[in-house]
Design goal:
273 residues; globular; eight-stranded mixed beta sheet; alpha/beta
């Protein structure tokens, strides 16, 4: 079912460490979590070893991968607070090659608790050193805010994937995210860049979706992926079953779009043949 995806070349970062991608946008409801779990699923399906880190206190990425609340004994909160080794927080999923570090509501207090901590911006990066050689890709599902949690993701990441809903208000906050990425690049992570912009929740019946798409492509050019994620009811249903939509209904338009997106991401990075 994943025949359209390319074969993966080993060692994505070129040095035997994982390629870390932060999936970020301070606006909520733009498809960050849906993108994280389905992109990761498609990547894992072609042989990449992938880790998702849920650093959103809502824990939607954890739920969407079937990790029940009572199973989340050790979480991303414990990693950020430096209380445990990363290995003890990793959960296997029903998808071969795909693991997840879950989150709980405890993470909502981390923004305040981290303020007085040493190296508060680098807690996630420091924690990931112990597992960076064990994965091809690490995807960080960020909260809908530009606080310390997202800052940790940006300091740890090689690049940022930006899901952008095809609606007018989604464009308004994008400039703030770009400025934040530029500040993080100058102050903390010189190698950070925008990997690409993913247009989500596109409705081809809606002229506004077409207008937003045209504006974003005009501004960001080749940074915008050719694949557009459509509005699709099966995509909305899948999390309630604890599954990525690619497993829930591989033939639906949303699944096929994410499969194509994964192929495009791998090709753009030059890590696929």
């Amino acid at each position: 079912m994943f025949a359209k995806l390319p074969e993966q070349v080993t060692q994505p970062n070129g040095d035997g460490t994982a390629r870390i991608l932060a999936i970020a946008n301070q606006k909520g409801g733009v498809g960050k979590t849906t993108t994280a779990i389905n992109l990761a699923t498609a990547m894992a399906a072609v042989g990449n070893k992938v880790l998702i880190i849920d650093i959103d206190a809502q824990g939607n990425a954890s739920t969407g991968l079937g990790i029940l609340p009572e199973e989340r004994k050790v979480t991303s909160y414990d990693i950020l607070m430096g209380q445990i080794d990363v290995q003890s927080a990793i959960h296997e999923t029903e998808i071969p090659n795909l693991h997840v570090i879950p989150s709980t509501v405890d993470l909502s207090g981390a923004e305040i608790e981290l303020i007085e901590e040493d190296r508060r911006e680098f807690r996630l990066r420091d924690g990931l050193r112990n597992v960076a050689t064990e994965y091809d890709y690490i995807l960080v599902d960020c909260p809908p805010a530009l606080g310390l949690l997202t800052l940790n993701a940006l300091c740890a990441a090689n690049a940022v994937l930006v899901p952008l809903q095809c609606e007018f208000y989604a464009l308004e906050g994008l400039s703030h995210l770009i400025k934040t990425i530029e500040r993080v690049k100058r102050a903390f992570n010189p190698g950070l860049d925008i990997e690409g912009v993913i247009l989500t929740m596109h409705d081809q019946r809606n002229n506004l979706s077409e207008m937003v798409e045209a504006d974003v492509r005009d501004h960001f050019g080749e940074k915008v992926y050719n694949t557009v994620i459509p509005r699709n009811v099966r995509v909305s249903e899948a999390p309630s079953h604890g599954k990525p939509v690619i497993l829930y209904d591989v033939n639906c338009r949303g699944s096929q779009a994410y499969i194509h997106l994964a192929g495009e991401v791998l090709k753009r990075e030059g890590r696929a043949v």
